[in-house]
């Protein structure tokens, strides 16, 4: 007797009509036509069952603060940073916790199981860190939250930035962050990467750095990050987030840079929605859109995962907590439209992101944690096309969220009355 069986599921790897049996918090069996009984049965009816989505790059301390203290009129990265600087002195722990929990409630209904949040350490009060560490504990039963100590105003540039980041790590932040392109000079940026990687190595922590989030083709901080990763033996434990300068770099230089990143086993985190919104603001036409070289980085064997980055905050006035929206945009901007491309992008929202975050026992295999989503779609391509409804969200073997399927009611005589966008529109592959 199992606790839960999902029957007639399609899996992201192409297997169809599979049953998934769950005992306690783990997947106990995953195979066709399991004959055992269960206390609860969910019939997936040929729909896609996926591991829960993971967001490896987010700013939880800023989420849902849109309009505070005012709107970002220019829509630029720099005005967003300035607005955040104006808001920061008035932030309270209570308000930060409330907004974060509200966002997480939304994200969980969208199938989210893990989020890595960068938390600003530039204010020596560190109220942001206190709040997000509290949230991490509060949501532990239903979401894994990782906290990055992030010197938003620059590790060296911010007053007391070095000491504040060290205190944030002492308080319990999980990961060392940085933003070298926001230091005052290129040399200061390089020095910050070196210092932060050394700090991470000394403390035995991973690194996740906002790196080269700029249109400047001569920005070289990702090169330094890869080099310092190798120097300190941090291979596989370092993520370069954004990397937007790579879209403007000379192709010959990139042909040298990518092998260095491969040697460092760097994780790469583009943020499609935000990157194309904020980059290229100095261009007239042709206008660069800013996302890094996703196809080339994937082809080189690097682990590429996608982040949402922002939802309704000084940098981005949109967002829904739905990682399929992120992947949907990535398909267009990266021009990755084949079935194989879409499968790779779906992986970048799930298994690749879990690898970036170092999540243990994640996936669709016997013994993995039973953290699953049933989607109103047949396969990854259809899920991305429709930004599919998450019908059932399962955490450690228990259903924690449900959403009714999206069904249109058509009132035209002689035509089908109920329209399911996930049934009968795409060809059989």
TrEMBL record:
Keywords: Hydrolase, Metal-binding. The keyword Transmembrane helix does not apply. One of its GO terms (molecular function) is metal ion binding. It comes from the Bacteria. Residues 40-400 form the Amidohydrolase domain. InterPro entries: Amidohydro_3, Metal-dep_hydrolase_composite, Metal_Hydrolase, Metallo-hydrolase_Enzymes. GO terms for biological process: cytosine catabolic process. NCBIfam families: PRK07572.1 (NF005748). This is Amidohydrolase family protein. It comes from Stagnihabitans tardus.
């Amino acid at each position: 007797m199992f606790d839960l069986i999902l029957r007639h599921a399609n899996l992201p790897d192409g297997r169809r009509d599979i049953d998934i049996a769950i005992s306690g918090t783990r997947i106990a069996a995953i195979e066709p036509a399991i004959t055992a009984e269960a206390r609860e049965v969910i019939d997936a009816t040929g729909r896609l069952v996926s591991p829960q989505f993971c967001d490896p790059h987010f700013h939880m301390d800023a989420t849902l603060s849109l309009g505070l203290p005012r709107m970002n009129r220019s829509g630029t990265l720099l005005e967003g940073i300035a607005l955040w600087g104006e808001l920061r002195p008035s932030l309270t722990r209570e308000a930060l916790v409330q907004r974060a929990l509200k966002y997480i409630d939304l994200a969980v209904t969208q199938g989210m199981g893990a989020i890595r949040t960068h938390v600003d350490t530039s204010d020596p009060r560190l109220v942001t860190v206190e709040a997000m560490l509290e949230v991490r504990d509060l949501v532990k039963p239903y979401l894994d939250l990782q906290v990055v100590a992030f010197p938003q105003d620059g590790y060296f540039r911010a007053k007391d930035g070095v000491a504040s980041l060290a205190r944030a790590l002492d308080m319990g932040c999980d990961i060392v962050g940085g933003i070298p392109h926001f230091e005052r000079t290129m040399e200061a940026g390089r020095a910050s990467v070196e210092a932060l990687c050394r700090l991470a190595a000394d403390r035995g922590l991973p690194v996740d750095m906002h790196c080269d989030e700029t249109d400047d083709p001569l920005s070289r901080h990702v090169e330094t990050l890869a080099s310092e990763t190798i120097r300190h033996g941090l291979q596989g434990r370092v993520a370069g987030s954004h990397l937007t300068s790579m879209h403007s770099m000379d192709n010959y230089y990139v042909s040298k840079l990518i092998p260095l990143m491969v040697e460092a086993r760097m994780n790469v985190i583009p943020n499609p929605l935000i990157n194309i919104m904020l980059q290229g603001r100095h261009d007239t036409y042709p206008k660069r859109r800013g996302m890094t070289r996703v196809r080339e980085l994937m082809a080189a064997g690097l682990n590429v995962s996608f982040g949402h980055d922002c939802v309704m905050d000084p940098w981005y006035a949109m967002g829904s907590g739905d990682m399929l929206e992120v992947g949907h945009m990535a398909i267009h901007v990266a021009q990755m439209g084949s079935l194989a491309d879409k499968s790779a992008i779906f992986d970048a929202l799930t298994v690749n992101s879990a690898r970036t975050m170092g999540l243990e026992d994640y996936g669709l295999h016997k013994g993995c944690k039973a953290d699953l989503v049933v989607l109103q779609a047949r396969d990854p391509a259809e899920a991305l096309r429709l930004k599919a409804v998450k019908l059932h969200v399962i955490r450690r073997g228990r259903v924690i969220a449900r959403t009714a399927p999206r069904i249109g009611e058509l009132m035209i005589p002689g035509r089908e009355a109920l329209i399911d966008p996930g049934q009968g529109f795409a060809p059989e592959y």
